[in-house]
Design a protein that fits this description.
single chain; 385 residues; alpha/beta; Rossmann fold; eight-stranded mixed β-sheet; five-stranded parallel β-sheet; 15 helices; globular
């Protein structure tokens, strides 16, 4: 189902162009609910009454910047999108106010509009081939990025699956540092690119690290502030047609774009350490996942750095978080620290390395013959053998 779209513009030409674009959406995607208002205050009032709307804001509308900021504060499930005939850095900065800014150029492209509303930006008849696996930390430092890196690398090299590691944390760009490589090119190269151009552009910025394809985030969100985020919807759709697995390393901060990514995921790995504070934050992330439309059956809680005493049992964890842990990884600080300082992978003969390898084997559809077998089966079935 397509998201409801709200247009805020007092320009009759923009209104006509919007109505034209709606009629050109692919027929098999359905017809979205739409509404048009002519003033910023009316736009805010209307957005409050709608469920997760896409709000198109004419950049020439009086108080357009105020409306963008009000939507971020008062309607967090809305996706504000600024419209203009041509974009420049001063225009983007004046509207943005330091928050996330999606942009579209007018005349509206039905493909780009469809991507924002949830329609596939790919040609009719195209389909998703690969799996989207998302990794979300309960808080920074819980190990979600480490998990995504090692699972992606094992799938690509040991299990010979075409795998892409997609770094979507635009506030840190930590992956390049972790791998000891230059942080360029990055997804900032796609900032401001129209949705239909993304499938051609992203291939030129894919990097490779020891047999694993990677798309790096920029070291700072400042690289995106003027032109807005890359067209993540069309980027994902294109990548999933080319790879068996796309593993998305997500930021802890869940914004509208990240909610849309999670909603498309085949599995979301919520990674937490076993401390009470981390589990409390995991509970909040779990509720945000459910609110974003991710069914509980697609969520896996991974407890990292376990093994200390006193240990919480599964029932204790479920009472705190709302979901039982599907998998536990051991607290192997020495192996993790040695790997990070040397920009290497965690040693496969360590306890943590063995746990990560076993999880990757299960994701590759292979049975584990190690002592982890029963735990890995429980990971996917929820049942102990």
């Amino acid at each position: 189902m397509l998201r409801t779209v709200l247009l805020c513009s007092s320009d009759p030409a923009v209104v006509r162009d919007f109505e034209r674009a709606l009629t050109l959406l692919p027929a098999d995607e359905g017809v979205p609910r739409s509404q048009i208002v002519h003033a910023a205050l009316d736009g805010l009032r209307a957005a409050r009454e709608l469920d997760g709307p896409v709000v198109l804001i004419d950049a020439r509308l009086p108080s357009a910047g105020d409306l963008l900021r009000a939507l971020r504060e008062d309607v967090p499930d809305a996706l504000p999108v600024a419209l203009a005939a041509a974009w420049s850095e001063p225009l983007g900065s004046s509207l943005n106010g330091g928050g996330e800014l999606q942009t579209l150029e007018t005349p509206l492209d039905p493909v780009a509009l469809g991507a924002l509303l949830g329609a596939s930006p790919q040609p009719r008849g195209a389909r998703k081939n690969g799996r989207l696996l998302c990794f979300l930390g309960a808080q920074n430092g819980n190990g979600a990025s480490t998990l995504s890196l090692h699972i992606a690398h094992a799938l690509a090299t040991k299990h010979e699956r075409r795998s892409l590691l997609l770094e979507l944390d635009f506030h840190s760009g930590a992956l390049a540092c972790r791998l000891g490589i230059r942080p360029e090119p990055t997804l900032a190269e796609l900032s401001g690119v129209r949705a239909e151009a993304a499938p051609q552009r992203w291939r030129s910025i894919v990097g490779s690290w020891r047999g694993l394809d990677i798309l790096l985030a920029p070291a700072s969100s400042n690289a995106l502030s003027a032109r807005g985020l890359p067209p993540i919807d069309s980027l994902l759709a294109s990548c999933l047609q080319e790879y068996d697995d796309v593993l998305a390393d997500l930021p802890c901060s869940i914004n509208a774009s990240i909610r849309k990514v999670m909603a498309k995921a085949d599995l979301v790995f919520l990674v937490s350490t076993p401390e009470i504070t981390a589990l409390h934050l995991a509970s909040r992330r779990f509720q945000r996942l459910l609110a974003a439309g991710v069914e509980e059956s697609r969520i896996r809680l991974v407890l990292n750095r376990t093994g200390g005493e006193p240990a919480l049992d599964d029932g204790d964890v479920q009472r705190i978080v709302g979901i039982a842990p599907s998998f536990r990884l051991p607290n192997d600080y020495q192996a993790a620290a040695a790997a990070e300082s040397a920009a290497e992978l965690i040693a496969p003969d360590s306890a943590l390395g063995a746990g990560l390898a076993g999880l990757a084997s299960t994701l590759a559809g292979k049975k584990s013959r190690s002592s982890l077998r029963r735990g890995l089966e429980w990971f996917f079935t929820g049942k102990r053998s």
